[in-house]
Amino acid sequence: MKVRASVKKRSAECKLVRRKGRLYVINKKNPRFKQRQG
Asked: Which of 5, 17, 20, 25 could form a disulfide with 35 if both were Cys (CB 3.0 to 4.6 A apart)?
């Protein structure tokens, strides 16, 4: 999980999800693309 000020989709499989007021990028196929904003 990378924590960044700006999260972007890094592949077509990435999904943007908002949990507890935070923005997450999740990817089932390639979990190394996981990111969290803030």
From this structure: 25
